[in-house]
Specification:
2 domains; two-stranded antiparallel sheet; 2 strands; globular
Length: 276
């Protein structure tokens, strides 16, 4: 009876909980490849999940809740954000071809970030430039190989090319993490700031691509990838600017920075749990 009375006394909270459950279940079904049929250019699952998230957002912005003494509107707003985050653009459970296209879409940003790294040494103090150049020397070759693999996988999504991407993205991720630690050792504040900013731009794209590769990889493959990750995310996180990373993600996906900021935090948690 208490449960029934709670539903009656707090209809907005109950409705929010139901909508969150719908979006959560939809996300799980999508990740398992269960579509329940097609709806337009998408699937029934994605349609229902999208409608539930939209209704939750409208519910959270209901002006009637503004005078709630318990702060219900604030809580619903947070829940709406959580629900919208469930289908992360990085790990949306899409097909291998869709993920491959997203990886390829990230490659111009990756190449641009690496080009910025190449030109950053000129901005550093003379004593710091050689250290930075040595720490980032492998970026160009590793990036070119990953871009080629991504394009090859898009045109022919085979297990062999996927295995190559799985190995290569970890190689690049480890190079970036190691470079972050080297940049953090630079004593000159200006040089350190320029170095960390340049390396993090590469790292943000690499993290996005890593998440995309993870999303189409088996648990065994992800575990094997993580086993080659010796410089962990937890080690480099103190030197990273999450706001800057969120800005890049928001610009790429055309979404609010506030949403991207929480997505980046959630993505980092996912990668940490996987052993990266």
């Amino acid at each position: 009876m208490n449960s029934i009375s709670n539903i009656w006394n707090h209809p907005k909270t109950s409705a929010a909980g139901l909508l969150i459950a719908v979006v959560t279940i939809g996300g799980v079904l999508s990740q398992q490849g269960i579509s329940l049929g097609s709806a337009g250019t998408g699937t029934v699952v994605s349609l229902v999940s999208g409608l539930a998230a939209a209704l939750l957002g409208l519910l959270a912005r209901d002006p009637a809740g503004a005078t709630s003494p318990s702060g219900t509107t604030t809580k619903l707003g947070a829940w709406a954000l959580i629900a919208l985050l469930l289908p992360l653009p990085f790990v949306s459970g899409c097909s291998g071809v869709t993920v491959a296209q997203d990886i390829v879409n990230w490659t111009p940003a990756l190449q641009s970030a690496v080009a910025t790294v190449d030109s950053t040494a000129a901005l550093l103090a003379p004593i710091d430039a050689p250290i930075f150049a040595a720490a980032t020397a492998g970026f160009d070759a590793a990036t070119k190989l990953l871009v080629a693999q991504a394009k090859a996988y898009l045109s022919n999504p085979s297990a062999g090319v996927l295995a190559q991407m799985q190995a290569q993205i970890v190689v690049l991720q480890q190079q970036v993490n190691a470079a972050v630690l080297e940049a953090a050792k630079i004593v000159n504040p200006s040089s350190q700031r320029h170095a960390l900013t340049a390396v993090q731009a590469v790292g943000t794209v690499v993290s996005a691509i890593l998440a995309l590769v993870q999303s189409i990889s088996s648990k065994a493959a992800v575990a094997q990838m993580a086993s080659h990750s010796t410089v962990k995310l937890a080690t480099v996180r103190p030197y990273l600017d999450e706001g800057r990373a969120a800005g890049m993600v928001a610009a790429h996906y055309g979404e609010p920075v506030s949403l991207a900021r929480v997505q980046v935090a959630r993505l980092e948690a996912i990668e940490a749990r996987a052993g990266f």
